[in-house]
Amino acid sequence: MAQVRLSQVRKMYGATMAVHGVDLVIEDGELVVFLGPSGCGKSTTLRMIAGLEAISSGSVEIGTRDVTKLEPKDRNIAMVFQNYALYPHKTIRENLAFGLRMRKMSAPEINQRVNSAAEMLGLTPLLGRKPGQLSGGQMQRVALGRALVREPEVFLLDEPLSNLDAKLRVKMREEIARLQKKVGTSMVYVTHDQVEAMTLADRIVIMQSGHVQQVGAPLEVYDRPANLFVAGFIGSPEMNLIDGRAEGGKFRFNDLSLSLPQGVRADGTPLTFGIRPEHITIGDGPNSQIFRVGVVEQLGAQTLCVGDVGGCQVRVMMDRTDTVSSGTEMTVSFPPQRIHIFAAETGERLGDHTGSEEAEPPRTSKRALETSEEETR
Amino acid sequence: MSSKATFMSFLVIGLLITLTLIAAPVTYAITLSFYSLDSFVGDPEWVGLGNYAKVLASSEFWNALKNGLIYAFATIFLQVVLGIGMALVLNQVFFGRNVVRGLSILPYLLPTVVMVLVFKWMVDGSIGVITAGVEWLGLPPIYWFESPLAAMLSVIMVSVWLWTPFVTTAFLAAMQTVPGSLYEAAKVDGTNAVQRFFHITLPMLKPVLTVIILLRAVWMFNKFDVIWLLTGGGPVGSTEHLAILAYTTAFSQFDIGAGAAIATISFLILSLAVFIYFFFFPLDAE
Ligand SMILES: Nc1ncnc2c1ncn2[C@@H]1O[C@H](COP(=O)(O)OP(=O)(O)O)[C@@H](O)[C@H]1O
Ligand SMILES: [Mg+2]
After folding, report:
1. Coil, helix or strand for A104?
2. Per-residue pLDDT, B35
3. Which CATH architecture has domain A4-221?
4. Does residue A358 carry a pLDDT above 60?
5. What architecture is the A238-376 domain classified under in CATH?
6. Distance from C-alpha of A137 to C-alpha of A164, rounded to nearest angstrom
7. What is the 3-state secondary structure (H, E, C) of chain B?
8. Domain B52-280: which topology?
9. How confident is the model over B226-266, as pLDDT tens digits?
10. d(CA A82, CA A60)
11. Sheet of A240-247: strands edge to edge?
12. In ligand 1, which atom is closest to the CA atom of A44?
């Protein structure tokens, strides 16, 4: 178990830079998720931690050791690959034991570790089979088991669930979370699926085009997206984003005039105004406007309406209603504490308001809260 | 209906060609082995298994069988080991790799007779480059085709030189099909390059290797041209194997029946070997 420290880690492929100077500390026992669209450099960063990809510049430390120049086998990491990468000609038992055998561990200890990991993952009846005789979910478990038996300092997982069907994905996600809490080993988990990231992570690292855009606890990045990219990427359906100007303390666009949250002083500058569909309230309130419904999407528990407010297209998520239809007009309001303002030019978040009603202290991770609770007991 | 007719006509044509070109001569040759005849025009005389008895009683036959086995095993072993070694080297990333890959298959592309002549020039007593090299090293001259041992080594060497590229190319192609993530998983699992070869590459390529070895075995056991062109089976029968013995018996000594019997026995031995091989290395294992 150990802290992982990335300092100005860069990756060049020829002249193109795939990863631009990542600085990150993964605390001991923490589950950090790298999240971002395809091609943003998540895998490359993970593989640089693993030692499978040479680090162009910068350094990686695991615990107190600088591992920047070490081979994967000397880094004391274990990895789970997207396609599982199980050895097809070896039995499940041999697959699990292989990494231990290569490290010259004694046979009784290997057996003990393999058996207990198999027990934990429900693989015991499958130990004599070959990977080709397993289902996708079972292969996924073997891949996890192979990492688990190693008892490494860090687990590295690259999109481990993306080859599974939706139902199994949810199940395995819960299983991974449970295992990680149980063994308490640091984990770096790569995914492009924000639901996976939100549900699993102690902290999410959001990446785009090789740059880290924001690092924070799941609710922190949801409540206070650091820039336009994060605002648009996190949350489903997407946050409403409207380009306009600040004039006389108000945000203006077409016929729209909305009061800015406290602390945002940006007179005359181009701004982007953001509010999540689920944060627009129905009925009179601050910043109330007329919303004309265009398209109605029934999602079951909720109803998503796409329509028009003051000449802007806006999505509004409301509790299920069967009475709205195309052409319905209603009053909606935009609570100031739910409003996000970004500088249109840089995309940076403006103002220091929390973006959430709950008075949660900013920049505190879930895990930090958990541990402090435990300590106070 | 018409596509079925097309299919049938191709099938019939194919079968006819196969029958005419392969089945008929084979049947004819096997039939000949039961007759005594000294030319293809005279009247054959039925002798039953007489030719077989005669052949199996001769020391030339057993000598040729022994030589054939030595030649086949030595060339297959060297081709496979060197072929895999070269494939591993050529699979690395280095400058000019594609050129080297292309050049490496050259010996396989040239006609055997050309390669044999090239080798003969290289070991020529007065102008050969190998002869000069041996001299430069201060070693006594090697008489490549004069002593039984040297002659056998020569035919083995030239054969390996000619057909290792086949193994290299087949193995190299097969290596591209192994998923890279397996090697990465093995790296994380703590293996070095040698361990990765024995734990990933070799087991993953076992089916391909099985076929390569089988193909090479059949070819090497029946190989005629290299030996015929290099040594003609000499000196004093030291490189003579069954194919050459069958040929000389039939066409130099004009004992066509005995020659056919030798060829038939050779065919039976090979069939039995292939059968045993597949018993121990089934292709559909796993
Ligand atoms: N071997 C390579 N050679 C050149 N470019 C690469 C290589 N591997 C990845 N890249 C590029 O680096 C960027 C990041 O890739 P990757 O880390 O795989 O993204 P992802 O976030 O989807 O995992 C991509 O633009 C990709 O095209
Ligand atoms: Mg990836």
Report:
1. coil
2. 80
3. 3-Layer(aba) Sandwich (3.40)
4. no
5. Beta Barrel (2.40)
6. 7
7. CHHHHHHHHHHHHHHHHHHHHHHHHHHHHHHHCCEECCCCCCCCEECCCHHHHHHHHCHHHHHHHHHHHHHHHHHHHHHHHHHHHHHHHHHCCCCCHHHHHHHHCHHHHCCHHHHHHHHHHHCCCCCCHHHHHHHHCCCCCCCCCCCHHHHHHHHHHHHHHHHHHHHHHHHHHHHCCCCHHHHHHHHHCCCCHHHHHHHHHHHHCHHHHHHHHHHHHHHHHHCCHHHHHHCCCCCCCCCCCHHHHHHHHHHCCCCHHHHHHHHHHHHHHHHHHHHHHHHHCCCCCC
8. MetI-like fold (1.10.3720)
9. 888 888 777 877 788 888 887 887 787 777 888 888 888 88
10. 23
11. A256-259, A250-253, A240-247, A270-275, A340-343, A349-350
12. 17
Give the closest residue (by CA) to ligand 1 atom 1: A13
CA-nearest residue for atom 14, ligand 1, is: A41
Q: Which residue in chain B has the smallest CA separation from A84? A: B181
What is the overall mean pLDDT for chain B? 84
Report which of residues A375 and A249 the model is more confident about.
A249
Q: Where are the domains of chain B?
A: 52-280
- Please state, in angstroms and rounded to a whole number, the distance separating the CA atoms of residues A89 and A131: 8
The binding-site residues of ligand 1, defined as CB within 6 angstroms of any ligand atom, are A 13, 18, 36, 38-44
Cβ atoms of A160 and A144 closer than 8 Å = yes
What's chain A's average pLDDT?
Answer: 88
> Does B185 lie at the interface with A, CB-CB under 8 angstroms?
yes
Give the ipTM of the model, two decimals please: 0.83
For residue A41, the CA-to-ligand 1 centroid distance in Å is 6
Query: CB B179 to CB A85 under 8 A?
Result: yes
Segments making up each domain of chain A, as ranges:
4-221, 238-376
Chain A partners of B191 at a C-beta cutoff of 8 Å? 73, 102
Q: A20: buried, middle or exposed (CB in 10 Å: 19+, 13-18, 0-12)?
A: middle
Q: Do domains A4-221 and A238-376 have the same CATH topology?
A: no
Q: Is A99 helix (H, G, I), strand (E, B) or coil?
A: helix
Which residues hold their Cβ within 5 A of ligand 2, which is an ion?
A: A 43
What is the CB neighbour count within 10 angstroms for residue B110? 11
Does this model's pTM top 0.90? My answer is: no
pLDDT at B106: 81
The Cα–Cα gap between A160 and B114 comes to 56
What is d(CA A370, CA B247) in angstroms, rounded to the nearest whole number? 88
* Nearest neighbour of B181 by CB, restricted to A83, A99, A146: A83
Q: Which residues contact B135 (CB under 8 A, 6 or more apart)?
A: B141
Mean pLDDT over A251-274 rounds to: 78
Q: How far apart are CA A180 and CA A186, in angstroms?
A: 8
Give the distance, in angstroms, between the CA of residue B132 and the centroid of all CA atoms in the same chain.
30
Give the C-alpha separation, A215 to A205, whole Å: 5
